[in-house]
Write a structure and sequence with these properties.
Layout (H helix, E strand, L loop, with lengths): L1 E6 L5 H9 L6 E7 L3 H11 L2 E3 L2 H5 L6 E4 L6 H10 L3 E4 L7 H14 L3 E3 L7 H11 L6 E9 L4 H4 L20 H11 L2 E9 L10 E8 L4 E7 L8 E8 L2 E6 L5 E7 L5 H8 L11 H15 L7 H20 L3 E2 L14
Parallel strand pairs: 1-2, 1-4, 2-3, 4-5, 5-6, 7-10
Antiparallel strand pairs: 7-11, 8-9, 8-14, 9-10, 11-12, 12-13
Protein name: Gfo/Idh/MocA family oxidoreductase
GO molecular function, one term: nucleotide binding
Organism: Bradyrhizobium pachyrhizi
Length: about 350
């Protein structure tokens, strides 16, 4: 049994606490929660009959916590993950893992030195339609990849940002690219591979925040494919979609719904009898933008910890996504195309003369 504690009892904590405290994850239990805002910690703890803490050091000193779900503002993730690692706790870190690459490196190093695992929450990778699309990709059914597109068209009004003073700030949250669209940016890179360069634009269209609420970007992948990111929290009056489109020479798949859960298109040149089943049986739109992936993700975490398996999204994988997001912001600030990987031009190393 993996015993979990929750660090941070804000908005996303409901999803994690319902799964862990509600005994929906086989092999896992919730034993304690921690938040400096007493009312928040007490509410979650009271609902599930677990201990409430208001001091992180006291919380981490507990011997009955094996792993901590770090659900605090993104800008605080580095300090909190490093503290967990020093206390000998594995961590499950909500996206994004950090806001700066140096912080991500420090987190990875701290976990390695402490001999603990770090899991970055990318639950959309576990959505059944996404899993089926990935199986098709691995089987070569798309052929040459041509174009990938992600769209996040969600509604986050001013009341959402006013819930906490850290929301929409550069220091602790970032904008729509960092927060709401980070899962979708991860999807694009997971399916299409390494990004060579990006060009992005952004605006703060409706929300009164420091960061952007709307952004668009184009990407060039190493395999020659192109990518498009469209992200906004300025959709009104409600959420519209969170979608992924994959276009290849031999097939097209589009997964939409609120949270990349509903198959809109599934067509391949070389059809299989199972294609009909995929569309009919594996396409479900969730009740909210969180989708259904968290449950499958926690099953994966428990399996990795109990059986010493490698994480699908560890610190290094989470860092890749952060590097791409950082490049998008660099392009927004400079107005220029930004390269992600160094490519030697003049080096003679390894070149046969």
């Amino acid at each position: 049994m993996i015993r979990f504690g929750l660090l941070g009892c804000g908005r996303i904590a409901k999803r994690h606490s319902d799964l862990l405290g509600g005994n929906h994850i086989e092999g896992a239990s919730l034993v304690a929660v921690c938040d400096p805002i007493r009312a928040r910690a007490d509410a979650v703890a009271g609902k599930f009959g677990v201990a409430a803490h208001y001091d992180m050091d006291e919380f981490l000193a507990r011997k009955d916590i094996d792993a901590v779900a770090v659900l605090t503002p993104s800008g605080l993730h580095p300090a909190h993950v490093i503290a967990c690692a020093k206390a000998g706790k594995h961590t499950v870190v909500e996206k994004p893992m950090a806001l700066r690459l140096q912080d991500a490196d420090d987190m990875i190093r701290a976990c390695d030195q402490a001999g603990v695992k770090m899991f970055i929450v990318k639950q959309n990778r576990f959505n059944v339609p996404v899993v089926k699309a990935r199986e098709a990709l691995d089987a070569g059914r798309f052929g040459k990849l041509i174009l990938g597109t992600v769209r996040v068209r969600w509604c986050r009004d001013q009341a959402y940002y006013d819930q906490d003073d850290w929301r929409g700030t550069w220091a602790y949250d970032g904008g729509v690219l960092t927060n709401q669209a980070s899962h979708h940016v991860d999807m694009l890179e997971w399916f299409f591979g390494d990004v060579v360069s990006v060009h992005a634009r952004a605006a703060t269209a409706l929300a009164n925040i420091e960061t952007e609420d709307t952004a668009v970007a184009t990407l060039k992948f190493r395999n020659g494919a192109l990518g498009i990111i469209e992200a906004t929290t300025a959709a009104r009056p409600t959420d519209l979609e969170g979608s992924l489109s994959i276009l290849g020479e031999k097939g097209t798949v589009e997964i939409s719904g609120f949270a990349v859960n509903q198959i809109r298109h599934w067509r391949f040149v070389d059809e299989l009898p199972s294609d009909k089943d995929v569309v009919e049986k594996f396409s479900v739109n969730p009740p909210n933008v969180y989708g259904f992936g968290h449950q499958a993700y926690y099953h994966h975490v428990v399996d990795c910890l109990e059986n010493q398996r490698a994480a699908l999204v560890d610190g290094l994988e989470g860092r890749k996504s952060l590097e791409l997001i950082s490049a998008l912001y660099e392009s927004i600030e400079t107005g220029e195309e930004v390269a992600l990987r160094f490519t030697p031009r003049l080096s003679r190393l390894g070149v046969v003369s």
